[in-house]
Amino acid sequence: MKVLILEACRSPEIIKGNTEASVLSKDFARDGIPFEIYSNDGIWESCVEISRSLLSELLRNPVVSIVHLAVHGGEEGLVLRWSKDAAIRDRMPPEILTPSDIRSMREWNEKMVVSGACSSASLAPDFLAAGATAVVAPAIEVPWSRIGLFFRSFYLVYRRSAEPEGALAEAVLQYPEYRSYRVFRGEGKVAAAETNA
Predict the structure, then answer these.
(1) What distance in Å separates the CA atoms of residue 193 and residue 167, rounded to the nearest whole number?
(2) pLDDT tens digits for 118-154?
(3) Alpha carbon distance 92, 81 (integer Å)
(4) Could you write out the DSSP letters of every residue in 108-176?
(5) Which of 34, 62, 111, 133 has the most beta carbons within 10 angstroms of its beta carbon?
(6) Is 197 domain-assigned?
(7) Are 116 and 146 in contact (CB under 8 A)?
(8) Cα–Cα distance list, 32 to 7, 9, 24, 26, 103 (Å)
(9) Is residue 51 helix, strand or coil?
């Protein structure tokens, strides 16, 4: 298992503490899980702005089996970059990965996609049409305060079982505010994160 973490932060100049990408990178390093991170956040030594061409290049790595998207987004697509306006509230996304962009990128083939973007479950059919093996994404807006911890729990179980459905159910037991997450697979199969508790 090798994880590619992609992060597009709207306010890279602000120290934010435990972001989704920073929590995961520390855990993966500690647990010996191979990963690469590409982020525009100022906490990293080498900041990189994600573009469609860079994304396509990174996805071509056959060793990468999971793509973790620590980005903003929704039904219209996923934000790859933000404008550099002085006021954060004025920053707009000049580059969005749209549903049609996703479908046209065959590099998703044989990769599991895990999304931290709000309401990104609507993009699951696009990832699956492009060949992704599974998509883990929320149906609605999700809180950001504990998302790194939620994914820590998910990956801990996933590493042992290699089954996203069970890993998601365990993570939601610990962090019920993320119960809108689902696992999507080809042929219309959807597994809810909710348990029978």
Answers:
(1) 9
(2) 999 999 999 999 999 999 999 999 998 899 999 999 9
(3) 9
(4) GTT-EEEE-STTGGGGHHHHHHTT-SEEEEESS---STTHHHHHHHHHHHHHHH--HHHHHHHHHHH-G
(5) 111
(6) no
(7) no
(8) 21, 26, 12, 10, 32
(9) coil
Tokens in use for 161?
A: 């079982």
Q: Quote the pTM value.
A: 0.93
- Torsion-angle region of 73 (φ positive above 0: left; ψ -120 to 50: alpha; else: beta): left
3-state DSSP: the chain helix, strand, coil percent, rounded to 5?
Answer: 35, 20, 45
User: 133 with 110: CB under 8 angstroms?
Assistant: yes
- Average pLDDT value for residue range 4-29: 92
CATH of the domain at 66: 3.40.50.1460
- Residue 192 is encoded by which pair of tokens? 């809810």
Counted domains in the chain: 1
Over 90: is that where the pLDDT of 187 sits?
A: no
Q: Which domain holds residue 28?
A: 3-192
- Token couple for 99: 């549903």
Statement: residue 15 has pLDDT above 90: no
